[in-house]
Structure formats: structure tokens, C-alpha cells
Amino acid sequence: MEYGLFGNDDRLPMIGFGTWDVRGRAGVRTLVEALDVGYRLIDTAHMYANEHVVGEALRASGLTREDVFVTTKLDRPYAGYDEALAGCDHSLRELGLDYVDLLLIHEPYAQTRDMWRALVELREQGKARHIGVSNFQGRFLTDFLAWCDTEGLPQPELDQIEAHVYWTQASTREVLEQRGILVQAWAPFTEGRRRIFSEPALVEVGRRHGKTAAQVALRYLLQLGVAVVPKSSHRQRMAENLDVFDFELDADDMTRIARLDEGCSLFGWY
Fold first, then answer.
1. How far is CA 45 from CA 51, 74, 218, 240, in A?
2. Bridge-partner residues for 162, per DSSP?
3. Res. 268 pLDDT band, cuts 50 70 90
4. pLDDT band at 11 (very low <50, low <70, confident <90, very high)
5. Catalytic residue among 3, 39, 48, 109
6. pTM to 2 decimal places
7. Which of 28, 87, 92, 115 could join 74 via S-S bond, C-beta 3.0 to 4.6 A?
């Protein structure tokens, strides 16, 4: 495993396991299997309505709390200062945890600034070891960072954004990297919006390295400095997604894959 570093030298696993559609008993089994395969970052959110599933899987895995990095996110029902404080407590109850490793604002809201003051307080209380945002880019990101500076508040430690070979968000990544803010990708496989596993450029590059198109897609983001949270319900693919640290894309590979970038969201969020 490779790691990103927070400002206090805490480590972020560069590959985690996404849970956006994980549900019920089957979801618990999927997550226990992912942890058994070797995943040590689990990404959930209040919006996913599965924090209790993640908590049950963590308990069933036999791993210690310190073994697993847990991320969750607060969305619109918790848009506000008091609301965000209550939202964190609700998430901790659902997860069965005393703290989360990373707490994010799920997307920009009118009450983002009030939410951020709450997240700063929650970090001070030890309920969240690290705090950040998700889906902040363009003016939402730059305006928010300028406000943090003006108010003398800590900046986000991480921004989780849509990123994949068809849109790497170069301008957003440049802003984040200049500020020392970690970048993490949701939908690194596009969640079915593109036939990424049969993309000719990825297949051919993968053939040269003895890897799948999926592994090449993840490796490309990792070499751009972007952490990823793919998801699969199949054990073999879970293992393949972790098996991307024993090869490196060369300059020609990177250039070829860069040509796939369409420069826009596949989800219409922005």
C-alpha cells in the first residue's frame, strides 16, 4: 500500500473501498471480504444510508479500530452548525465508533461555513481525526479556501472529487496541491458512465504491463497523486484493484491515457 500524508504525518491509504451502493446482509459480507482481502480504508456517508452496515462489518472483521481508516460525510440534513454537530454524533452511533478518521462535508451548501466551524470543533473534540470537503471545485473551492484564510480557520485536509481517466480535474488538483490538500477520487471507474474496462487505450497499456484496464485506470490516478476509492463485490476484482503497486506507467503511457480526458463531469454535478 502507498500512503498520502496529512499535515501531522498521519497516513491516508491511497486505495480505499467505496460503499455507495452497499446494503443489508450482503453488504456486510462484501465489506468483511474487502477487509479480509486487505482494504484498510472504508468510505461511507450519511447519504448512502449504510453507516450501520459498515459498523457491523468492522465488528465482524476481527480487526482492531486502529487497523481501519473510516471516512464518512455529512449531507443536506446536517447543513448548519448545530446540525453538523448532531450529524457527527448520529454517524458515530450508526458506525458504533468513538471517532471517525475523516469527516467530510459531502458537497457545497449555503450553510457550508457554519458546517465547517462545527467540523473544526469536532476535530478538536477528537470525534474526527481529520476533516475535509467533497465535491468542492471551481469557485466553490477557491471562495471557501479564501474564507478559511480570512477567518483564520484551518483549511480542509482533503477534497474528495469526481476523478477518472475521462476527467482528472487538473485545475482543481492544481489548487489543492498548491495548498497541500490531499485529493481523493470517487467514481474512479465512472460507475458505469463509460465502458472503462474495455477502453482500448487502457487495455493496450495494460497488456504491455500484464495488467487489466481497471488496474491501469487506478494506477494512472495514483501517479497523478490522487487517492482512489473503487468498489467491487467480487473478491478477485477487489484483489486486482489493490494489486497496482508493482508497476509504473511510463511517460508514453501517461500521455496516451491523458488524451482520454474529456474535460467535464460525467455526472452533471458541477
1. 7, 7, 22, 25
2. 186
3. confident
4. very high
5. 48
6. 0.97
7. 87
